[in-house]
Amino acid sequence: MTVNNKSVFPTLYHGAEKIPLNKTSKTMVRSQEDSASIALAMEAAKVAWWKMDLSTGNISYAERETELLGYPSGKLNHCNEFMSLIHPDDRVQVIKAMKNHLDGRTDRYDVEFRILTKSHGYKWFLNSGSVETKDKNGKPLIFTGFIIDITDRKLADELLKSSELRYRRLFESAKDGILILDAETGMIMDANPYLIELLGYTGDQFLEKAIWEIGFFKDIIANKQKFEELQQQEYVRYEDLPLETTRGKKINVEFVSNVYLENHKKVIQCNIRDITLRKKAELAYHQSEEKFRLIMENSADAVFIIDHNGKYLFFNQAVTDMLGYSPEEIKQKSLADFMLKNKRSNFNALFEEVLNKGKIYAEIEMIRKNRNRILTDFYMILLPNGLIYCMFKNITMRRETELLLKQKSRQFKQQNKEYQQLNSQLIQSNLKLISAVGKAEENDSLKTAFLQNMSHEIRTPMNGILGFSDLLKNPHLSGEDQQKYIRIIEQSGRRMLNIINDIVDISKIETGQIDLFIQDTNVNDLLRHLHTFFEPEAELKGLELNCELSLTNEFSRIETDNIKLIQILSNLLKNALKFTETGSISFGYNLRKNMLEFYVKDTGIGIKPEMQEIIFDRFRQVDISIARNYEGAGLGLAISKAFILKLGGKIWMKSELSKGANFYFNIPYRISKSNHVSKKPERLPGGRLQNINILITEDDSTSMLLLKKVLEFEKANLFFASNGQEAFKIARTTPELQIILMDLKMPVMDGYTATQMIKRIKPEITIIAQSACAFSNDQDEAIKSGCDDYIRKPINIEMLLEIIHKNIGKPVTPIGSMISDD
């Protein structure tokens, strides 16, 4: 390092008399034990002493400083050499601090700055110095001090600032009122804008006052004694608190307080939610429900509400009066029991008609308990929630006097119909309100469960991906660390993809979009593959993994959806590995009559009896506490159950806490009719697509780069297009083109249109569609548009090469060393 000694040092030196260092330095006598203790303390604290001769600018320092900075001893023996290593943004403040001290403005100086170390780039240090020796005129001659590595503290400060900023943003933007109290004094420390606005106060009216001094809280905390209850209880909740704001507005709130430590200080956080609108909705619902009950109970007409099986859910007093049976007797009968035997088939037909058409009206003769017959006007309507509203009226007397009262009867009938319509409208309104409240509560519960699970499960792998991606930017990172970080990013990516696949699967299940792809499946080969795949993970945990096959290869070949079978067994094996720390895991199958019964048994933690009833529900795990010890979205068993039911089987389990769990499921045993035996391809080196001309049509640059690297490795001749229009132009002008990889969703022109246009002029070109959509019928649409084959994103490279080779008539082989096994 070449340094101009006049560049920095003269600005610090004020003309002190040049006296040899050995004549002016103070002699400090310490015992050998004291020196050793100080050295050990300095080493532990990352501290190094230094001394500078102001007349020459020369610096001497302890060997510890060379360790901190990474430079060899004697390398930094002058002030200018040391100053040149200070970060350019920090030099001015360092020089200013030293000058203020040397000019007598301060007794000593302390300054923090960044120094360029030998191996670790810029690191933060605290430099503290003072004058040790002065000349006869009082001018400083010898300047001593120490330097401390504070890099870790600086990084921690930055993280703390970032965390505090995130907290403040959440606090300020929260849609619930938040109040922070000093748990010892009851003083208000902070309140978010929503709460201040809700209550009609200003910030000055809140801060630095005791909680009981704010009028709003007098109903909650009438005095200091009441406040002590909040101090002593970690959690306090008022579900419905009627209050009045400073503006005189009456509201209802939900009040929750929690006690916790913040910076070693006990504080109380109060969350206040305005539930005024919810209370109004609940009140309206109850009033409407009571109105419905009163109308039905006091109705002169007999009213039933039944389900599709004819089970009574409601009937009024008029039913018992009209038919002569007690309520208990009516509950034991169906509507058909009150009809003439030779008319019951007609009534059953009317029942089916109301299910198909939505409503019916008829005159039906009914039998009372005393065996007397009555003629009734009978009306049934199918309600939106699937229940059936029935009303009938005894018109026997009316029929007997019909000739005399015909006109009046018509008027009564018309009024009766209007009344029925009014009742029907009222019932429908009530049921809609009930349905709306139920759906709102259900949606809120499902949303909360989903967000709590997905937030953890998505953020965890994303933290690995983003964090280690950032670490890869370090230019001084070793090759071994690079590979380690890349493996972590790959594992996090696979975990993220598994979560997304689970979400897609459960969404398909909820919307009834599960499709089966039945094909020949060798169960023995499938289980051997799973054993090979999961064995390394089992060995890593010290577990024994056993695969047990009960049929020969000939009889283990069946017709089923092998993809879903693999996913079911994988989910069960993943759970077994997750919840088993010692012992073994066994999996296999047995033939039970015409069903194949599979099992996965482990010696893990087991499942509590109360959990065994709900373990197959969505978002459920063995550990359902908030602080879960096991990762996972809790969807695996729910997905597996849906797939098994779709395949025509069932799933069940047996478990004893702390002794493991045994999961069983079965599927139909349909032996394969094909004698075809697939052969495993030989592994060949790269270059299997040499002289094959392939056009990659892809608008996503990352996907384009991946396909480019894979196909270049196989020595294919490549052409590129970013949309369907470009692909059409290249296909039209390139006679030697053989294969087109066609993305379906692109700007300018999509893949469907481009395929149709290309096939019109060059039907011989093979077009392979690729899509990332998980729900649509892209595959069917792509084939209809003229595509020869289809592959779904994220693309499995070996599957892609298999499809390409299939379409060009060449043997298929794995990629080899270029792509590692999942």
Description:
It contains 24 helices and 27 strands. The strands form six sheets. Strands 2-1-5-4-3 form a five-stranded antiparallel sheet, with helices on both faces. Strands 7-6-10-9-8 form a five-stranded antiparallel sheet. Helix 15 packs antiparallel against helix 16. The protein starts with 20 loop residues before the first helix and ends in a 14-residue tail after the last helix.
Task: Give short descriptive properties of this protein.
single chain, 822 residues, alpha+beta, 5-stranded antiparallel beta sheet, 24 helices, 41% helix, 23% strand, extended, disordered N terminus
Indicate the proportion of strand residues.
15-25%
**Main sheet properties:** 5 strands, antiparallel
Strand arrangement in the largest pleated sheet:
2-1-5-4-3
Rg for CA atoms: 41 Å
Low-confidence stretches: 1-6, 13-34, 622-628, 675-684, 810-822
Shape by Cα distribution: extended
Helix share of residues? 40-55%
* Tally of individual helices: 24
Global mean pLDDT? 78
| Quantity of strands, as a count | 27
| Main structural class | alpha+beta
Question: Which secondary structure elements does this structure contain, and how are they paired or packed?
Answer:
Elements: H1 21-24, H2 32-44, E1 47-53, E2 59-61, H3 63-69, H4 79-84, H5 88-102, E3 108-116, E4 122-134, E5 140-149, H6 151-173, E6 177-182, E7 188-191, H7 193-199, H8 203-206, H9 224-232, E8 235-244, E9 250-262, E10 265-274, H10 276-297, E11 302-306, E12 312-315, H11 317-323, H12 327-331, H13 344-357, E13 359-367, E14 373-382, E15 388-394, H14 396-400, H15 406-471, H16 479-510, E16 519-522, H17 523-540, E17 544-548, E18 557-560, H18 562-578, E19 584-592, E20 595-602, H19 636-647, E21 650-655, E22 661-668, E23 693-697, H20 701-713, E24 717-721, H21 724-733, E25 739-743, H22 751-761, E26 766-771, H23 778-785, E27 789-792, H24 797-808
Helix pairs in contact: 10-15, 15-16, 16-19, 17-18, 18-19, 21-22
